[in-house]
Every structure is written in structure tokens, then in C-alpha cells.
């Protein structure tokens, strides 16, 4: 099973009264991460009845495995947006991110919820001298886009940099503590929260009907906030690229570690600290990014990241480690709005890139307005049906070319990979038995677990993740436990068990 994060280890799950006959609601929200919980909370506050449906643990999936930065500085996005769409789009993007961050600060204070919210400067840095000019350009564009941006030559990192773009007065927080507080306020007064309940079907109509493992739920509107959209009727699987980064959390002293939040624009190492209840802090270091399910040793990547943290910060006491997952759009703007062009009742939020904390919160604010009929000037910017094909065609073709190559190449590999005798204890691999591709795992006691290696989404073959002990599909990012149960979509059905 995946490694637990600090956010999960430091919070307890909520329990809600069971619902034997789910009543009709105004809005059914599928997915209990930051986008789903925020949307459900805001709609409840707007006077709607809501059903919040989560297949596993609230804020326990992608949201529970983040680095939890709240910043409008998203690496070098302003220069990229200005080049592709113009300065007005870059400005609107930045203002919308700041709006989401400020809302969390105000709302958590109003509710009296302690979420370790800390204002910090945010830095995008480089070490190579040739990269500094790019950062100077990013700082200028971001400032033109009304962001609190400037270029600096020095930081409080314990190693030299060639330059950095700094955004002042950004933030970091404890995401799960925040979201559990919101979820508690969703339940009651005609609204309810279902955990451990999986949505299995969606019939669009008036009302819509969501089929779940706890029964059918009728709702006037449905929000799909499941990270990768399930029941994919908008072709999102071909429009999103699944990426993963590793995170290690290392114990440090109260006065150790950098004061700001950092991301490298060269190798995307992410750095921040976390306050602990005993006054000490954790140093969170992220990196080793790669495509989900790529043929790589995740265990070796964890070791490489730990070595980097020790070399740069002298921190060697690893308290936690986990995997962060992200879905990116070709034009770098999230999809928030109508699920597909023909619907007026089903809504989606996905494609937050590496910045789900601000984008997921923004999704809740925007979807609330769309569902309640309020005008929102950001609707067009994030519309999932927007026409950005020309601007993003190259990345779209690269992504789907990779999927095609994996779909065909993995089958050739599976047909030549031998049988289960070569599966060593504590390891897994895809092997063949006749014409079948089998995902085989042998535990430390020698017991063999076998499931179909064919992903239940679109049939690509999974690969073994030796750092998390999961089966991952690189085509569209689905992940499965060793027994085949679904950990992450777009797949909704488990891998078939085999004798």
C-alpha cells in the first residue's frame, strides 16, 4: 500500500452516521479532496443540500499527499501564459489564485479552525547561471500581471543560487486539518457525507442519478471532483498528463530549515518546513518527478531524494515519505466548469498541475457560482470546453503519442517477460501465462498474488511501483493496490484477480 503522509498521520478520520436510503439532494459531489470538500461546503453555505461522496478517506488521496503550498507563484507560469495567451490571461490567473488563498485565510479565521496557516515568501530559484535571465523575465512578467514579484540574487537556502523570483506574502498550511473541519460542517440539515462509498454510474437527466455502492442518489446537479474524472464523457483521459513527485519529510530543529517556500525551475525540487506540536519542524523536500507508471525504480528515486536532502541540508532523519500525484493540462490552465459541452447539470474540476491547493479551492469558489447562477468573470478562463487546440497541440500530441507507444510496447514486453518463477520475494512484475499478461507480486513469505495486468480503464498494462508496492498505469494514471483494488482513477473497476 502507499506510504502514509504527515498530513494523514497527524489527523484522525471523521465518522458520520450511516445513510441507509440516501435522500434526494440539490447537488451530489463526487470526490472528497480539496475541490470536492470545498465545493460541498460552499454550496451548503449557499443554502443547497449536498451529498459528499468519497470512495475512501476524506482528504486521503491526492490532497493528502501534497506539499501544501498556497501560492500564486507556480514556477514560471506567468511568462508561459503571457507568451501563449497574453498578459490579461496571466493577470486573471494570478488574481484568481490569490483570491483562493485569501479565502482560506479568512474562512479558517472566521471558523476558528487552527490549520497551521503561515504567511511565507515563495521562491522559484535556479542554480545554473544561464537560467537566471529566464527568471528575470518571469519576475518582470509576473509584476506586470500584478503579482508581488521581484528578482533576487540571494536566498536563505544553504547553497548558492544564480537567482530567484520571489513572491511576497504567500502561505502554507495543514490541508487535511482544514478540509476535515469543512467536511464536518457539510453534514446535517438535509446534507450528508458518505465515506467508503464508491460512485459506480451516472445517469444525466432531470434529476441526475448517481449509482453508488450505497444505493442511488438523485440530484439536480453533480460535481465530479475525483482528481481524474470518472465516467469520462469529456475525453479528459486524452487531455491530461499524469505526473508524480516524491516527498520526504525530515526532522529538523525549530530554528533550522529555510524560512520561505522554494521550487527549483531546473529539477523541480520543492522545499518548505512544517510546524510540529512540540515546537520542532519537519523539512519537506519534493522531487524526482516522472510520469505515473514509468519504467523506473521508485525505491531508488526515494533514495536519491533522501541523498539530495542530506547533501543540501544535512537532514538525514526521515520521518515520512510519500508520493504526490498531479494531472496537467496542455495549456497549463485547470479544467473547471461543464463536464461536457451538452450538459448544464454535471460539472468537473481537474487538471490542477502541481498546484492543487490554490486551484482546488478556486474550483470550489467557481463551481459554487456556476451552479447557483452567479456571474463569475473567471468562467471562460477555466472552461473545460475552451478552444485552445492550436496553443497546446504539440504537448497534446506528445502526450498521446507516449500513450500509444506504451499501449503497444508494453504488450511486446509482457510477451517476453517470462513466468512467475522469476518474481523474487518483496517484488512484483508483469509476466505472461499463455496469452494473458499477469501482474504478479510475491510477499516476503513467498506467497504469490496475481491479478490481471490489464488496466480496467482502457486496457494498457500496469507496471510495479517498488517504492509504494502498487500497480500503476502510465497511460492515464490509474493506480491499484496489490490485490487489484482501485487506489486512483480514471479506472473505477479493480484489476481482475487470478488464481
From TrEMBL:
GO CC field: cytoplasm; membrane
Presence of keyword Iron-sulfur: yes
Stretches assigned to the Rieske domain: 415-499
Pfam entry (one): DAO
Top-level division of the source organism's lineage: Bacteria
Molecular function via GO: 2 iron, 2 sulfur cluster binding; metal ion binding; monooxygenase activity; oxidoreductase activity, acting on paired donors, with incorporation or reduction of molecular oxygen
InterPro entries, alphabetized: FAD-dep_OxRdtase, FAD/NAD-bd_sf, Rieske_2Fe-2S, Rieske_2Fe-2S_sf, Rieske_Fe-S_prot_C
Keyword Transcription regulation applies: no
Keywords noted in UniProt: 2Fe-2S, Disulfide bond, Iron, Iron-sulfur, Metal-binding
Protein's name according to its UniProt entry: FAD-dependent oxidoreductase
Organism this protein belongs to: Phytoactinopolyspora alkaliphila
Phylogenetic classification of the source organism: Bacteria, Bacillati, Actinomycetota, Actinomycetes, Jiangellales
